[in-house]
Amino acid sequence: MMGDLTVKTNGIYLTESNAIGSLKSHPLQLTYDGGFREIKEQALFRGTSLPPHLKNGGDQGKRWARASSCPSVSDLSRLETKAVSKANLQEKDTEIEIDEVFWNTRIVPILHELEKEENIETVCATCTELQHALEEGNMLGNKFKRRSILLKTLYKLVDVGSDLLSLKLAKIILALKVSRKNLLNVCKLIFKISRSEKNDSLIQNENILESLLGVLRSEDLQTNTEAFLYCVGTIKFISGNPRFLDEMIIKGTLGILAHLIKQMNENIKTCGTCLPNSGHLLVQITATLRNLVDSPQARSQCLSVDTLPQLCTVTELYVDDKDVCTNIARIFSKLTSYRNCCTALANCSRCYALFLNLINKYQKKQDLVVRIVFILGNLTAKNNQAREHFSKEKGSIQTLLSLFQTYHQLDLHSPRPAWPSLPSEAEDVLIKLTRVLANIAIHPRVGPSLAANQAVVGLLLTTLESKSLDDCEELVINTTATINNLSFYQVKNSIIQDKKLYIAELLLKLLVSKNMDGILEAVRVFGNLSQDHDICDFIVQNNVHNFMIALLDTKHQDLCFSACGVLLNLTVDKHKRVVLKEGGGIKKLVDCLRDFGPTDWQLACLVCKTLWNFSENTTSASACFGDEDTNTLLVLLSSFLDEELALDSSFDQDLKNYHKLHWEREFKPVAQQLLNRIQSHHTFLEPLAISSF
């Protein structure tokens, strides 16, 4: 069976080259020193440089093609001398005698078969038989006297060029607990095979993952750093295949990798220096973790073994290694998309300074910066403590401002992307940056200072000036949301308040768009700004009020709420209350109360306040609201006051208690007063105003 042939093993077709002739060639040179013998080392890869995939993060979606199918036997090692004391041999006399019987009756015949076999499929099957026999005879590990003979026979077979056979051989060799360069060469062999995705099924069928994890669990990191590098490199490759994910989680891969990270961190703290190839090893570890955290079980394990603080430490110690930092940013980007992981990272108070340092150091490295800003957006989305921690870091706002300016300039001079529906790289950073600004502006200490910051507000307005929803929808919406949050603060030195009329002009183009999210954010800004008399005049002069009334018909709960807030603020001015008569405003408000009142006390409260302001000084409810709407209001308000608030079953008990409390304290008093007015035509309250923040 000389030359090329195709054989089928376990249902998989394999192409083999030079399958015969090499099975019995290349006798190994042995050296003896009165004791056990191990294979001596030679490099599998000529030279000292590492493969590109182990030097950097690489393209996670691709693998580099293997230079050759397998290393040749000439690249594998010769027997390594290992002295054993005479006393130790005497202690094992009984065990050796029992092993000799098993060796001669079970193992030797299999070795003879391996030496004479000329068919790849049969050789593979014989290797499997050998593995089972060694397990049965308890002959695995590094204490077995005949181990060197086994290794000699196994190494002869590597040159065959079969990936399947090489994996079977590597599995046995690793089970024999080879060390030092022997271990390194076997890890290199598996790594070379794993570089081709077509071999994933072979690796899985042979359970190579368990062998590799055994190496990481039992061998010394400092002694075998390079072997670990190739070992984790293989695991990184196969972790990109979803078929391996559950197996990796079950076998504790994440915990093993987390322990390696901890060891490397402690080594630096103890010795003050990094292990050789530690940066390359961390690239492989973090790239693997990035794939693993797609699993809910892996995310849970991350929290249980304190992976997040250890990754923060790595970021601090390896801040000059962009590949390591980028992989960690990728991990955090995924983890912070989940509430419990996001909370855990937010509680690592030093993470904010680390992220700011990365932004300053790699400001123009878009692939890293965009992820860091995304992480900050996640951390500050629903956590007021995170907003405070971040804003208290020295230079935090200035760093964001500098980043904003940098990417705004890049955006101005960048060509439009080939796919107009997708944001450019510069726009992507700005999208995530404006989200961070919007989030931290919610904090009562940060918001007013941002509203008074000329540079921040100037960049936000410039963005609205230069971008349309068609250009970059998400950036325009995030920018408008940031302006909305800043417009909440009625402070004397607010740039937002100084430029309120100009902002109102800019928002008109959003109102006339067909984008509901853009319309919603614009209406929210008007809700805050309409507390000002000049803005109310602007609204009426530009017929914005008619648009707000029309929005009540959309049956979109958030839009109705925000539009009602604007109308409420208009009714504070008795001269503008008449606008509610236009476009059937009263009827639409009553319809909103009927549709949303039973489940949304906040919207119901706004409607009642608006109707209260509108009906001030009225002498006849029917003349004010109309007979039909008056009767509807009497029925609705009476029923609301007699019933409890209907809440979503998904709410937790604390949230239910919150809504019930405000239903009783805020909605019911206003509803009762309005009901009394309708029934008796008397006035009880002063006109009310609202901020829709």
UniProtKB/TrEMBL annotation:
Identify the Gene3D superfamilies for this entry: Leucine-rich Repeat Variant
> Where does the source fall among the domains of life?
Eukaryota
Q: Which GO terms describe its biological process?
A: sperm axoneme assembly
InterPro entries of this UniProt entry? ARM-like, ARM-type_fold, Armadillo, ARMC2
Signal peptide segment: none
- Name used for this protein in its record: Armadillo repeat-containing protein 2 isoform X3
Record organism: Heterocephalus glaber
What does UniProt list as this organism's lineage? Eukaryota, Metazoa, Chordata, Craniata, Vertebrata
